[in-house]
Protein 1
Amino acid sequence: MSFDGIVGLTHNYSGLSLGNLASQRNVHAVSNPRAAAQQGLRKMKLLHDLGVRQGVLPPHERPAIDILRKLGFTGRDDQVVRKAQDASPALLAACSSASSMWAANAATVCPSPDSRDGRVHFTPANLRSNFHRQIEAPMTARVLRAIFEDPDRFVHHAPLPLAKPFGDEGAANHTRLCVDYGEPGVQLFVYGKQAFDRRAPAPTRYPARQTLEASQAVGRLHELDEKRTVFAQQEPSAIDAGAFHNDVIAVGNQNVLFFHANAFHDPMGTKRKLREAFGEGLHLVEVASNDIPIEEAISSYLFNSQLITLPTGKMALVVPTECRESTRVWGYLKRLAEEDPLIGQLEAVDVRQSMANGGGPACLRLRVVLTEKEIEHVSGSVMLDDDLFQRLQVWVDEHYRDRLTEADLGDPHLLDESRKALDELTQMLKLGSLYRFQR
Ligand code: SUG
């Protein structure tokens, strides 16, 4: 299954993420939360229509009043917002980010066939590299526990310690490869640097958000088979070129790994380790820099595509529409779909509002491999079907603004509008009182 984060009502452009070129470029641009949420919903519907089981994750409450209170703002909630706006618009912006939409950063999830205890394991990402993202972890944990409740089937670990050596960005740096989803697979963890070895290579311009130490800890917690777990370093110069997560430069599904030649620091060693762990039948599709220079891979977000298996068994690549705007990238993709034995279909989706903050199709989804029995134990009404899709579209049109600037974030009405909308949403999704303001 794919679980997409519903875009929140405060979606805005605050230039919060160093090393994420789109976020930095679009600082202070006027956002359109309604369009952003509708684009996200239409992408989910497309995936649903292509045969993927699609779920939704509710947005977090923003502005994060609880965090603002912890930082010393007092009074009624509307006063807290106003005071924060007066004291520091940048702080209020960080506490207002709708960044939980990028569900690929919500958690690392390992399916039951891969774990020694036969259960599905979840570790919410601590997202410690950026303050506006770090504050997501507690609510993410609550949402995942509410949806995957059954302790006989689902295990929830705490986010890793919030210390520098354990920076963890979740599934954006983790790929599970397998022959069949229900068979044991290979877990590929990609890290940006080693925290405890200062001499090891690391990017120099932009931060490496994921450490080897964090990835190893998640592997231990999830009780993975060491022989089927591969840790690979991301190429530091790729991070410095703007690939702040591995999923900006590589994507995998079943036995296919589609990646740029500059994705891994030791490409030969990584491929060898993957082949050894996987056995027969691994299909590596490596894109040479001559075909697509890394800068163009990043600006088009080609690798932040969703690679999915269609009911026919063939695979489709769901790319952002930006890929069409590059003759080189689109030409490459058309050749790939014609010539590759497994990837036979291309779909382009418009998620421009999210893309302008560095979030492509793959950033918006968290993959959770589940057996039929486990799917029966998913709680709430979070599975997208035609009916939920339509109801969510109406809900977005009713509650979301179509224009938001930095100044608007200080408008206390925005908090009221958000709470009203989120309250309705939890009823629609049958998730109980998830939010603090509901309790
Ligand atoms: O963490 N952007 C997000 C984008 C996350 C993309 N996710 C994956 N690649 N999986 C980030 O950098 C920008 C917010 C702002 O600038 O307003 C932001 O947080």
Protein 2
Amino acid sequence: MTVKTILTEPNKLLRQISQPIDNVGENEQKLMDDMIETMYAANGIGLAAIQIGFPKRIIVMDISKDQTNKNPLYFVNPIILNKAAEQSTYEEGCLSVPNQFAEIDRPNKCEIEYLDYNGEKKLLKAEGLLATCIQHEIDHLEGILFIDYLSKLKKSIIIKKLSKQKKKPDRIVV
Ligand code: ZN
């Protein structure tokens, strides 16, 4: 398992639409292993393949926040079958939008169909944090980031900040 570099906004790759997987084989499982390792190393609770540069419809998640009792989840080709009309609000962040947070409303429940780590078809009824996290990650597969739900002004302020951070030279102490 390898910890990969996570792409950050602004980056055109993050805006790409990810492609479905035909078959879950060794290569896909290796990618999922790298993704989960990368996500844990960055202290995230979800990661889409495109965030490490692979435009594939694969998501990994672990919302247990429990170092000793990890609960990794793998979703290949996830499709939202239905969403609740009722919304919930979480303050969201994203490993590809470092140090920026905003309150986002999303349907509070959703049902998804996907293939698991072994390529088996599964159904999941998600609610609460799990539902929000899945919707955030599926957005990544469509090239959508949570900041896209903000006003134009708020979004442009965040993108400016991120661009500035990127241009800063590395700080070294010698
Ligand atoms: Zn994200």
